[in-house]
Fold this sequence. Notes:
mainly alpha; 4% strand; two-stranded antiparallel sheet; two-stranded parallel sheet; 380 residues
Amino acid sequence: MYIPVRDTINRSVAAAVSHIIAQDGRVVLGAMIKRDITILRRHGIDMQDNYYDIAIAHYLLRPEGSQMLADIAAEMLQVHIPDWGVPVQTLRRGIKGDDAQTAARMASRTDAILRLYNPLQQAIATNGHQHLLSDIELPMVRVLADMEYAGVRIDTALLQGIAVEMTSRISALEEEVWQMAGTRFNTASPAQVGEMLFGKMQIDPKAKRTKTGAYSTTEEILEKYRAQWPIVDAILRIRALKKLQSTYVEALPKMVSPIDGMVHTTFNQTATATGRLSSNNPNLQNIPIRTAERRRKSKKNHHYNDKRGKLIIKVQPERLIVSVCGNTPACIKLFYKLVFSNLKITSAGVKFNVFVCSLLQLYHLIWVQIGISHFIGSFF
């Protein structure tokens, strides 16, 4: 059954959908079902824990592969699912127009999901992944859906102030660059930067031009000259500030929802082969804090909260300590000290009462994450 929906679902349809998905013994199948859980919740429909995600199951079998339904269907069923925007054959009667195209696509997707369920379940059982799927990955889908729905609050006033300061700092650095160069040029232009550094100033007479005739001024190349040439250091600092300003300081306030005043990111459960979560639109995980400007900007990480005021903890400084010091009593003691002083809490809890962990458990979790990210290999 396909139900065309625009912005809202009327009460009778919502009640019918709620009744269908809540029936005992019924499993709700989907692909990337977290999105469906979130959309249904916006319409007042709460999906229970009787769901199964085709993409999550396939991810456990082939974490390095694509988890898109079309790719999974092509791989396991040799079935082609038409892309969005490509005209498809519609039903002969019933729904008309654009809704007919959507209905036809959804029908092909639904058919593929139904046909994938049994072979995926068999493969999961054969590979011994049933516990991992049923007790960890599928419950995590709801946790992430809850986090996305709640959103995070950012201090827009703080970011606006930082944006003004960054603009002023960038202008000052550009004046320094122009003074060292002896003339004005566009520091945002790789071609002009290359001509100034390697053509006029000759910081490296052996520098080679690319096929286009310009000097390469990537960050990797300029880092080689940073220590010896103050002008290169200033240019790289300008680039870093501009990237931070455009990617986070100016971008995040624009992503605040006008409905609830929160930023709603998307957490990706199947994006990395190692099992690490990622987030996008916006990316709230990789906010850099290496420079003084970035550290001040990162203070907002401790201001993330949901509507009930619970903290979403981002522990980049503690992660650094874990990776540098290792699993030692002194390191754990220092980790405790930082958590107490920076976050003003005595224990760390994961939102929505999924589980509560002690500081020692939180330390071990971060240690495992660092190991996966940097140290653990086939010899470990």
